[in-house]
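Hi team,

As requested, here is the filled-out complex form for the S-adenosyl-L-homocysteine run. I kept the field names the same as last time so the parser does not choke. Let me know if anything looks off before we queue the next batch.

— J.
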Amino acid sequence: MNTMKRLELRALSEQELTGVCTGLELKKFRAGQVFQWVQGKAVQTWEDMKNIPAQERLQLAEGLDFHPLELVREQRSHDGTRKYLFRLQDGDTIECVLMEYERKSARDRRTVCVSTQVGCAVGCAFCATGLGGFRRNLSPGEIVGQVLDITHHLRREDPEFNVTNIVFMGMGEPLLNYDSVIKSITLLNDAKGQNIGMRRMTISTSGVAPKIRQLARDNPQVGLAVSLHAATDEVRDALVPMNRRYPLKELMAACREYSDLTNRRLTFEVALTADTARRSQAEELAGLLKGQLGHVNLIPVNPVAETGMKRPLASELKTFAEVLVRSGLTVTVREERGTDIDAACGQLRRQWESES
Ligand code: SAH
Ligand code: SF4
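And here is what came back:
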């Protein structure tokens, strides 16, 4: 019996697959063919790899794990957003969301919001994912698998379907699963795979300062969004517990290092609740971000029953944005998508777990 640790097919680069093929004494070009079937065409079975001889498929299957994610539930919003609940090999479930932006002026944008962990250890006050605690990190194959399986399902309706953008904003804290996230980015970027440009991928973090520094040095050219949510340690400690470990001073220093080293503009995410959407908080935020290369994205908090958080009034949101704009910051108010299908991360999974 083969006692070697089995490799995950969806986590392998073409180069790593070449190593596998060489080890099995298969022709080297098989690696490129298999890579294209798996990462580019998003097939879900070995049998679908038509140009690989059956005998060779069997040899490869012996040493490689190939498990598509099992689709448990799909919800469709009237605005085109679709939310997927997938079951992993070990029975755990994760969510991801497909947002389709149909724009006349721009090319169509089809963004997938992927999960990076099962649950999350950070435990932010308004987040459905944090409520359930942390279970485990996702592997690179499971992260890439979300994009591949959504692509697979959508191509049944539209053979031309392609994902164009990725946001690491689903369940989990991506920078606490750094290596797997970076590996999945490399795979998704591969021209023979999904060919998604580095600049079309964005990592969102609750503020793991040392990993922001590492990302700045590794500089994979992906976008970085920082979930700031508050501009004082007092308020942020209560909303984003990561702040107790890496307070604002340390976080902002890491952000500055990031923009200095990469010359890239960060996005600061600010989810506003009825409590935090105050003029005084907006002024604090304007002060904190002075001189920082960045853009602010205001998000009215998506109410999750157990968190007790309430949305701010539209007028409060408007005043908040105005204070920031007047201080020279660029601000967008996030378009609401999928609110009719519980699109806040972690909500679908919680609902499903309470039913089953
Ligand atoms: N863990 C990472 C990425 C996943 S969360 C992070 O925290 O950045 C993605 C974004 O959704 C974060 O900005 C997070 O704060 C926000 N978010 C989570 N729950 C929310 C809710 N109920 N309403 C609005 N935004 C929420
Ligand atoms: Fe984790 Fe992000 Fe949710 Fe906070 S907002 S609990 S970091 S997933």
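Two things worth flagging: Residues 140-157 form the longest helix (18 residues). The mean pLDDT is 91.

Thanks,
J.
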